[in-house]
Write a structure and sequence with these properties.
The protein has about 325 residues and is α/β, with parallel strands linked by helices. It is built from nine helices and 14 strands. It folds into two domains: about 110 residues, Four Helix Bundle (Hemerythrin (Met), subunit A) (Up-down Bundle); about 200 residues, Translation initiation factor eif-2b, domain 2 (Rossmann fold, 3-Layer(aba) Sandwich). Bound molecules: 5-S-methyl-1-O-phosphono-5-thio-D-ribulose.
Length: about 325
Amino acid sequence: MRTIDWVNGAVEIIDQTALPGELRVLRLHTVGELIAAIQSLAVRGAPALGVAGAFGVALAARVHQDDPAALAVAVQKIESARPTAVNLARGAQRAARLLPLGPDAVLAEACAVRDDEVAASHAMATRGADLVTELCGDRPRLLTHCNTGGLAAVVLGTALGVVGELHRRDRLAGVIASETRPLLQGARLTSWELTRWGIEHRVAVDSAGPFLMARGEVDAVILGADRICANGDVINKIGSYAHALGARRAGIPFLVVAPESTVDLDTAAGTEVEIEDRGAAEVTAHGDAVNPAFDITPHDLVTAIVTDRRVIRLDRGETTA
Ligand code: MRU
């Protein structure tokens, strides 16, 4: 089942706010509904956001066919619905380039964005599984953070796709899903996907990650990205940086799996990226709170980046350029 698709004139998504309790499908008919779904995290994860951006422009193209000003406003609202994952604006802009050719051409391009993410997931799974085996040997124990499975893409995912491929090859000893406070993408979504794939796993509180690594219970950290900067800095879910520090201290690989659509050569370093602040309400009802949704893992803590086209060995001085 696809996390996001175009079905009979509307965008269909799996409502990730309802998981793991309920597998509910939402049909989004308007740009407003799509933006609300993006902002509530009903659809989330960088590759899925890219597809959502493209389909959003396809929706706008149908409604505002004869009103270029309204169309431009809609495209801008879609692009900026969330700030951190580069895929969202990229997907929207890619579809928007076809606007002069009419709504059917825009929809065809949006479907191509979707298809490219499906192909990228399969390529990353193979390349990433090969690299994990090369670096960690047979049957490693992996720790992952946030949700990078099919729910975060269209099918299969990025880092979790690699986990799935290692399991399929019978080359995986165990998985720890870091719970991912405050919205629990790890505990709710990664755990749900791993269970559906028949992969045994355990959930750990985020702060346990570095300690489990220090105790020798993790052979590599593998996670995704919302944006990879020209210098190799990795923007991903808040908590990723702590896992990178833990991995460096324990001397184990820290692997980032993301499609080329997440590599942003126009942004020199992580400090230039707007980190989404999701407000206090998600964290606590008992007082003031600060709630950055992503963090920046400095490139010198990253062992390798796996994309659908290449393996970039930052530990050997290779660059994203
Ligand atoms: O706030 P979210 O749930 O959209 O954050 C998602 C992540 O941080 C993922 O790790 C990232 O998008 C990679 S998804 C393959």
